[in-house]
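User: Could you walk me through two proteins back to back? I'd like the raw sequence and the structure tokens for each, with a short line separating them so I can tell where one ends and the next begins.

Assistant: Of course. Protein one, sequence then structure:
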Amino acid sequence: MLMIVLDATVVNVALPAIQNDLGFSQSSLAWVVNAYLIAFGGLLLLAGRIGDLTSRRGVFQLGLAVFTVASVLCGVAQSAAMLVAARFAQGVGGAMTSAVILGMIVTMFPEPRERAKAIGVYTFVASAGGSVGLLAGGVLTQAVNWHWIFLINVPIGIATAVGAQRLLPRDPAGAVVRGVDVPGAVLITSALMLGVYTIVAPAAQYGWGAGRTQAMAAVAVALLAGFVVRQATAASPLMPLRIFRSRNVVGANAVMALAVAGMFGMFFLGVLYLQRILGYDALDTGLAFLPTTVVMGTLSLRYSERLITRFGARAMLLPGLALIAAGLAWFARVPAEGTYVIDVLPSAVLLGTGVGVAFPALATLAMSGATPSDAGLASGLVNTTTQVGAAVGLAVLATVSATRTSNLAADGVSTVAALTGGYRFAFAVSAGLVLAAIIVAVTVIRPAAAPPTDETNPPAHRTEPVMAEVA
């Protein structure tokens, strides 16, 4: 998971060097990122469900092989077309592996305390990987060259494959069930790929009000509606709709989308503020976010399991979200002549604390309604929600920031002040999105009874739905 999350962010730092070497135009350069996002976001649900229907371990290992081979092709790419194609293949492999990871965790660790500890490790890696990627990208690009941001995946992928072969348990006999719902698979994959493409391409280039953007978005929504109808009527649905009977699962995924959309302001706009306003280089930028990673890791790896076991996931979610909102609100006041210690570090610490507390709780709630037979689906749903939230959040925040900057520049404000004003407004919107997440958490997610800590827990092979009762 760390390798996949790193790969999603490490590329951003190296884009200027990639453009110079391979001759990308300014408009085509975005496809180094977009090709990966479209494949990754479009295949998460399908990959998670195929893992349920066949073998999560097998899907994980196959995806790992695809990702590692694609990393080699990215690293040796000598043309723009080859790099974009290899990035698409990376997205396919990344979707296959990450879609089943949470599903494997909840089935491998049925005891609540051990599961909370494993989910804490997972959420730390998934959340902190972004800031680690900025640091790693800066180091590799400046010390060697951009090819190594991809080639570094190869030894990691090989080591992970060896570990997976030795440590991951095989799926129980009889895990393979009826075939995949092919029409449903086509509908959901098409809907998600078209939706992600609409966000990263026409919406970013022409705006949300453009006819092309609205037409593509309408087709994506229609495909998604067709998928829902198909799942309600299919004999062996790709995504059984029973998973949405749980208020906590639905609420946790909604909170995840809003919180991730808001948090993208920190990593995307925060990088721009540090580089364009404060004059940081790539390495300095990565180091600036290091406190976020340290605080996040300390909480996720050492304390989240104890806190969730003691107080419950919902009780930890609310203060964590409040800290994230506070960190973004602090960033919303950054001045053009800001300093790191006063204007950036407090936000970094608040966000690291909030994520370290809230995201393990969110992952626990999002998987709480999954039976062992649906664990891969629930895992893929969480990852899909995260990707869609990040993509929508990036599009919205970039748009409002650019619009605010343009308005200020038209009023005669200096370039630096106009840019800073745009970033500040976008950070305020980010804080508003997280406040909306808090409202959803309070009104939709229900507190659960403290989980038992003895040996009376249900066995891992239990097949009855474990879902919160619908009001």
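----
Protein two, same layout:
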Amino acid sequence: MRIARFSIDGNVAFGAVEGEAPPGSTEGLVLDIIKGIPFADFELSGTKVPLNKVRLLPPVLPNKIVGIGRNYAEHAAELGNEIPDTPVAFFKPSTSVTGPGDPIEYPSFSQEVHYEAELAVVIGRMCREVPRERVADVILGYTCANDVTARDVQKRENQWARAKGFDTSCPLGPWVETGIDLARAADLTLQCTVNGEQRQLGRTSDMIRPIEDLIVHISEAMTLLPGDVVLTGTPAGVGPLNVGDEVAVTIEGIGTLTNKVIKRG
């Protein structure tokens, strides 16, 4: 099931996305409005609205976003970094989240902002110290993410809070796909295009550490809450974004997340 969060006539709701459409298009898709929230038992209302009549919002509002750095060997190498002995975790605040079609605001304190296409894991239940064999039980589904990074700031500051945590630096969407199991999530194609030109192309099978290891590692330290998001790393091919660019992240079996870069007002 594809679960979207949306706004219509000033009201916010969740809905199940039905139908098929060409990549990047919403033509022919409809939303069956959900009674309740997707993190508990819910029903479909049977009330349907065309997807192109609503505004899609970030599919979740996470309490926290936990990113994993250098989880693809070729990406680590392209930035001159060694593969770490343990996963490198960092936070992006909830204020960094923006939705499909919403702008990425180019920060005033950076002159080198990069795209990073990533598979995002959406947590479905409160959990801590998750054993590896139970990881599937705590995942609601998966969505597309762009871990937008002020690369020059990342290089000159000893920690990544400003470089990866500025407002609108975490586009998520267009929806959460719940019908992908861990085995399939471990081998999906993901790509990034800028103004229609392919910049990144990789597979999640190239991750150094799989999703199970990441959830175990993170949940050893902290409680994960429903709606929290884990970013699993980006493949090689990262590069600059400029004001006016349109950047799209497409993941096999999930969909396409598109955002335009604007100057921060």
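Residues 6 and 12 are 6 Å apart (CA to CA).

Let me know if you want the two compared in more detail.
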